[in-house]
């Protein structure tokens, strides 16, 4: 039996006392209502759930099982207790070779690592005109191809550009298969995005980035998200999106959730990595190509929490964006919350919001993160 003492963020609000878990499940909360600002005890929050992760610690999801295990361990040390392994655009042969390897990690969590809940196919079903830093290896989605991939690994999320012919009629079929369809990496109109939502699309991939922007006479995909979405991703590294735009999205989208979009450079020192046209540069928390384009991020979820608090969210509100909302998006009622019978995914922060403890399904993981609140 593990007993953790502190200010516990439960579904009914802050409770002060002990959180108890035995094995993989929370078995009790021995606590009473309390004001978390009224004492110096640590905060106990639900573990973070990151639905958009490409890499970390020098490893990339596209390099297979060993790399994914390394990525999952790195992010666990920063408070991520569950994640989606996110692929980039690639040809069919590469994905068919890669997905069984990733599927093996999904089926058996490595020791000391975050749970890999499944796969997020960010590519290849996106627009060649809105690649961002994705490889130029795009194509229209087909149900047959997606079904082949689903047989190799648990595909949980797919990003689609809504303007690509055939995608509008495909969305309903994907939803019936239990896949969350997100709109992103496209230049679709407001009307195309709203029609895709009506077909069953559920969210937007890294809102504001690599999609048609909001203009008052052409609202674009961003306008559709702000006007109609219940869920959407957002990268809160304070580089991809201005804090003012972040606050607008948080006000407009009821269950917005935050992701890192972390690349292999997460956790590495600043510098240039690689050579030639695909060389990337990490500097001041950002990851860019030689031409200045953003190329994913180096964000970790503990820093995301500090950034959200730094722009004015309460600690409870920031936690919801990093745990409960992404869990609800995937329909995971036993994750993203501290409650009896929930999975014992827990993070502990001190009063300066430095990460001091991580438990993944009850297993203690050594935190590697330090830091202070942003702003």
Give the radius of gyration.
20 Å
Across the major sheet, the strand order is: 3-2-1-4-19-20-21
Total number of strands: 21
Q: What is the name of the CATH topology of the largest domain?
A: TIM Barrel
Task: Report the top-level CATH class of the largest domain.
Answer: Alpha Beta
At the fourth level of CATH, the homologous superfamily of the largest domain is Metal-dependent hydrolases
Q: CATH architecture of the largest domain, please?
A: Alpha-Beta Barrel
Unreliable parts: none
The structural class is alpha/beta
Looking at the structure, what is the overall shape? globular
Active site: 261
GO molecular function, one term: N-acetylglucosamine-6-phosphate deacetylase activity
Binding site for Zn(2+): 122, 185, 206
Keywords: Carbohydrate metabolism, Hydrolase, Metal-binding
């Amino acid at each position: 039996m593990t007993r953790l003492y502190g200010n516990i963020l439960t579904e009914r609000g802050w409770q002060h006392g002990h959180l108890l878990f035995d094995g993989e499940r929370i078995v009790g909360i021995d606590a009473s209502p309390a004001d978390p600002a009224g004492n110096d005890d640590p905060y106990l929050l639900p573990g973070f759930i990151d639905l958009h992760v490409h890499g970390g610690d020098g490893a990339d999801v596209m390099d297979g099982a060993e790399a994914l295990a390394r990525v999952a361990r790195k992010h666990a040390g920063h408070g991520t207790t569950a994640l989606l392994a996110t692929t980039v655009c690639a040809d069919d042969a590469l994905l068919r070779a890669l997905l069984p390897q990733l599927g093996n990690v999904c089926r058996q969590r490595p020791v000391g690592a975050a749970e890999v809940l499944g796969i997020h196919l960010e590519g290849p079903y996106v627009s060649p005109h809105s690649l961002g830093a994705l490889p130029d290896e795009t194509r229209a989605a087909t149900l047959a191809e997606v079904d082949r991939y689903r047989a190799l690994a648990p595909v949980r999320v797919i990003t689609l550009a809504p303007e690509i012919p055939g995608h509008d009629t495909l969305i309903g079929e994907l939803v019936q298969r239990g896949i969350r369809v997100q709109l992103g990496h496209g230049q679709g109109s407001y009307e195309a995005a709203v029609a895709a939502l009506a077909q069953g699309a559920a969210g937007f991939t890294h809102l504001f980035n690599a999609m048609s922007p909001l203009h008052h006479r052409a609202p674009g995909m961003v306008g559709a998200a702000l006007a109609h979405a219940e869920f959407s991703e957002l990268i809160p590294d304070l580089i991809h999106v201005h804090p003012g735009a972040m606050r607008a999205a948080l006000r407009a989208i009821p269950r917005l959730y935050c992701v890192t979009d972390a690349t292999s450079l997460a956790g590495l020192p600043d510098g240039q990595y690689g050579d030639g046209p695909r060389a990337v540069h990490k500097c001041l928390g950002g990851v860019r190509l030689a031409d200045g384009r953003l190329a994913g991020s180096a964000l970790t979820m503990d820093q995301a929490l500090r950034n959200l608090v730094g722009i004015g969210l309460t600690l409870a509100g920031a936690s919801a964006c990093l745990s409960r909302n992404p869990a609800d998006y995937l329909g995971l009622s036993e994750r993203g919350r501290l409650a009896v019978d929930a999975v014992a995914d827990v993070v502990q922060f001190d009063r300066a919001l430095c990460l001091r403890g991580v438990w993944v399904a009850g297993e203690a993981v050594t935190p590697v993160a330090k830091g202070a609140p942003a702003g």
